[in-house]
Design a protein that fits this description.
This protein has 342 residues and is α/β, with parallel strands linked by helices. The chain has two domains: 2-146 and 308-339, Quinone Oxidoreductase, Chain A, domain 1 (Alpha-Beta Complex); 154-285, 3-Layer(aba) Sandwich (Rossmann fold), CATH 3.40.50. The chain has twelve helices and 18 strands. Helix 7 links the parallel strand 12 (190-195) and strand 13. Helix 5 crosses helix 11. The chain starts with a strand and ends with a strand. Keywords: Cytoplasm, Metal-binding, NAD, Oxidoreductase, Zinc. It is found in: Cytoplasm. Pathway: Amino-acid degradation; L-threonine degradation via oxydo-reductase pathway; glycine from L-threonine: step 1/2.
């Protein structure tokens, strides 16, 4: 089969022929239909310091995908040939304290599809049955391909109740955009999103946020005045990983405010912990998705009319992966999709 592979240490990827995968007893074999390009894939492509520490070539990339089940292992009982499946890319051990307690998203032995084991940038991929999310209702294939990052957005956006609250989101990348759409759909009073990319801020406006703010020209404090807010934001969602974004967020939170932090900083940075203490703020780290409560929420949100299609801005045949990766890296885009049927 054809697959997009990190064949050796160093920058670049190769679309090449590799052996077809064979499902184990508790695995399903999927014919891949669509995949989404993630920041992790860009890191592996460029072979940065994180990739050099974490990746062992040769490796098939990709963990955002949707596919059709074409074969099942002998022990598989709940997934059938013909099912349309999105994949949970965090592979957990099932034996640690958190797994045994039903908190699989906190597994200390988590391995990543397309990071520690061959992934979905290929014509076929195998996946443990327990990681297969079968779509029971009609769903757009491009949207189904990005259930993984959509799950990150939902996990963050629903970490704290947002109904009737004033919400600040820092970072209008694809996950930040999806979190804004979820917060709006879930009944937030005001949704404000910040970034420095006018392209992505315009996407946020299409998703119905109250204000999409370029922080190069306008401060968050000024926005509070525009919205007649007097005490600060109730809920914060930090999606950028930028130190200044978290600092500004803390400054503009109300007393007792709650922050869900998904953005991963590149390095340590100072925080005004005195402000956190005096305001009695709660800061919660978010990683991945709750397995599988978040997945239920995602499907229900889509069934309830949430529209994610504005977030998907570019789609390429898999053979045009170089252009697709360049587009994703350039930043003048939302979510970029690879079509493995084209």
């Amino acid at each position: 089969m054809k697959a997009l592979v990190k064949t050796e240490a160093g920058p670049g990827l190769s679309l090449t022929e590799v052996p077809d995968p064979v499902p184990g007893p508790d695995e399903v074999l999927l014919r891949v239909l669509r995949t989404g390009i993630c920041g992790t894939d860009l890191h592996i492509d460029s072979w940065d310091e994180w990739s050099q520490r974490s990746i062992k070539p040769p490796l098939v990339l990709g963990h955002e995908f949707v596919g059709e089940v074409v074969a099942i292992g002998a022990a598989v009982s709940r997934v059938a040939v013909g099912d349309l499946v999105s994949g949970e890319g965090h592979l957990v051990c099932g034996r640690c304290r958190n797994c045994r307690a039903g908190r699989r998203h906190l597994c200390v032995n988590t391995r990543g599809l397309g990071v520690h084991r061959d992934g979905a940038f290929a014509e076929f991929v195998t996946l443990p049955e327990q990681n297969a999310w079968v779509h029971q209702h009609k769903v757009d294939l491009d949207v189904a391909a990005i259930f993984d990052p959509f799950g990150n957005a939902v996990h963050t956006a629903l970490a704290f109740p947002v109904f009737g609250e004033d919400v600040l989101i820092t970072g209008a990348g694809p996950i930040g955009l999806m979190a804004a759409a979820v917060a709006r759909h879930a009944g937030a009073r005001h949704v404000v999103i910040t970034d420095v990319s006018e392209y992505r801020l315009e996407l946020a406006r299409k998703l119905g946020v109250d204000l999409a703010l370029n922080v190069r020209g306008v401060s968050i404090a000024e926005v509070q005045k525009q919205l007649n807010m007097v005490e600060g934001f109730d809920i914060g969602m930090e999606m950028s990983g930028q130190p200044v974004a978290l600092r500004d967020m803390i400054t503009n939170m109300t007393h007792g405010g709650r922050i869900a932090m998904l953005g991963l900083p590149a390095a340590e940075f100072p925080v005004d912990w005195g402000n956190v203490v005096l305001k009695m703020l709660t800061i919660r780290g978010i990683y991945g998705r709750e397995m599988f409560e978040t997945w239920y929420s995602m499907s229900v949100l889509l069934q309830g009319g949430l529209d994610l299609t504005p977030v998907i801005t570019h789609k390429f045949p898999a053979a045009e992966y170089e252009q697709a990766f360049a587009t994703a890296r350039g930043g003048q885009c939302g979510k970029v999709i690879l079509d493995w049927e084209a």
